[in-house]
Write a structure and sequence with these properties.
CATH topology of the domain at 7-115: Aminopeptidase
Structural class: alpha+beta
Order of helices and strands: EHHEEEHEHEE
CATH architecture of the domain at 7-115: 3-Layer(aba) Sandwich
Length: 161
């Protein structure tokens, strides 16, 4: 018997078609950043079609909580690492370890591919995210600025495997 909060994590199933639900999940998870980060998140520019294209080029893991979409993460191979992007947990599923499990599963995939690290970027303003990633074993490797900005806007973080 499964627990009432059973979480299943898997690669995006073949034939997945509910791109609107996946987009809604990402938008809901990133909504708290509105008015906090500058420039706005690239999640704002995603569409169902661009998300489908992204998923065709990158690994996408989804988390299902009691059979419904609760989280996702995209991972793209770059040199010696998997780059993690669009890690999103639905607001009503946050704090249940789903993000940690998604990162753990991406890490396992990277290891099977012989890669030496995971890498991600988080915004300067999102100190809570930085703290969480540090607890998961990531460390800062660089600060970068988005086009048109003279100050750093993002922190690159890396986890050696």
């Amino acid at each position: 018997m499964t627990s009432p909060d059973a979480i299943d994590i898997a690669a995006l199933p073949a034939g997945f078609s509910d791109w609107t639900a996946l987009l809604d999940l990402i938008n809901a998870a990133f909504a708290y950043m509105d008015g906090v980060i500058d420039p706005p998140s690239s999640a704002k520019s995603l569409t169902s079609e661009s998300l489908k294209t992204k998923a065709s080029r990158e690994l996408c893991l989804v988390a299902l909580r009691d059979g419904r979409l609760a989280g996702c993460v995209f991972a793209d191979r770059r040199d010696d690492c998997l780059y993690i992007g669009k890690l999103a947990i639905s607001p009503d599923s946050q704090g249940k370890g789903i993000g940690r499990r998604l990162i753990h599963d991406v890490e396992a995939i990277a290891r099977t591919q012989g890669l030496v690290a995971l890498e991600l970027q988080t915004r300067i303003e999102l100190t809570g995210n930085q703290t969480v990633f540090k607890r998961l074993g990531f460390h800062e490797t660089a600060r970068t600025a988005h086009a048109g900005f003279s100050r750093p806007t993002s922190i690159t973080m890396r986890k050696l495997l």
